[in-house]
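Aggregate trends can hide what the representation actually does to any particular protein. This step matters because it turns folding into a mapping between discrete strings. For completeness, the protein is quoted in full, as a sequence line and a line of structure tokens:
=====
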Amino acid sequence: MISRIAVIFILLLFWSGKACGQENIVRLQKKVYDLCNSMKYEDAQAEIHNFAMLHQKHPELYRAYIILSHTYKRVYDYDLAREALHKASLLADRSENQDHAENHILYETALVEFDIQSYDKSRELMDMIDEEERALLGPGAHSNLIMQEAYLDLRAKDYSQAEQKFLHARKIKQQSDPCNLPMVLGKMMELYGASGDSQALTKTFERSNAIADSCGILKYKIYNYQLLRKIYHDLGEYELEGQTHAEVQKLEAVYKAEEHRLFLRAKARERQREQVQLALDKKTRMMTFYGIIAGLLLGLLLLVLAYLRYLHQRHLQMTTQNLEMREEIDQFLRSNPNLEAENETIDPPELQKTVGIQGPNKQDPNLEKLLQNLTERQSEIAVLILQGQTNKEISQQLYISENTVKYHTRNIYQTLDIKNRRELFLISKN
């Protein structure tokens, strides 16, 4: 049961990854199409190159280079379009449907050869794609192939066969991609111009212009007038050719002005984006700076709190120890009322004179050995006693009470197993 669930989970991951990959290509194609329609061809090509760098393992990466070839065709750079299609062909074997990928590239290459009027090469490439594969390429590609074949029939002056194919291509294009219908209608204008059907020529020209206007594609309208001017020239209608030429010039001026306007608008948007990005970067830097300062202050506050807590605990500990010590001292003094007289029955200077010794030398090895057995506080008091100081003097120097001195003195005597200061002097020298 678990293994079956695992297999299903893996399949779902695979299908979701595949769907995501297809969706990425579709989004790229739409973005590039929008950029090209705004005449931002370099931006469109940059988007494709970035996509290719980020998705080098993508199984359908060849489609990105096909889209790249479209951007070069839009600016009539057919050499780079061919180069892009060549790169696509090198990636076709990655695709899960390699046959379809190769036929797709053949179709796009045929379009390029057709556009540069290499008709024999285009026909050769088209003949390599069978009807079943044409249908798999999609209605747009299918209509383009039929349109190209119709145009080749037109060049061969087989007007009847050409018209049938053009009408078939127009029907498919109308259903699948109506805004690009002027591609077919323009070729049909050439057909009617060559066959002398002026009425059909005018009707097709007007229909193509109406579609160009409704879709907002000025380039198709210029294309229509350029074709019409060529047809009038071939027919010897030079006056009409001149009028059409004047219209072409007007439209091209409008196109250049629109292109410039779009360029300026794009630059303005780019500057606006840069300003917004600069503001965001500045805000991010400030937030980072304030965050660092806040972190440092918080850390410092925590250290201060920790130190204060330590001092408080130390104070409580010292207070507790002092209370316990005082209690012990009071209890000791109550049980030994004659301790003070015992401790100082002999004045220290007189004691030193009596035993014939001087104050302690801190480098004296006997003294160091003696102090090893005492605590730090006991060692301090023992040294001061050996220096001849009284309990009162010791208490004043160490800032403790005389009772505390007496308490430590008693502990010193107990630790060293002596009874009074005289014995402390003697053992410090022996």
Observations:
- Residues 339-429 form a domain with the Arc Repressor Mutant, subunit A fold (CATH 1.10.10.10).
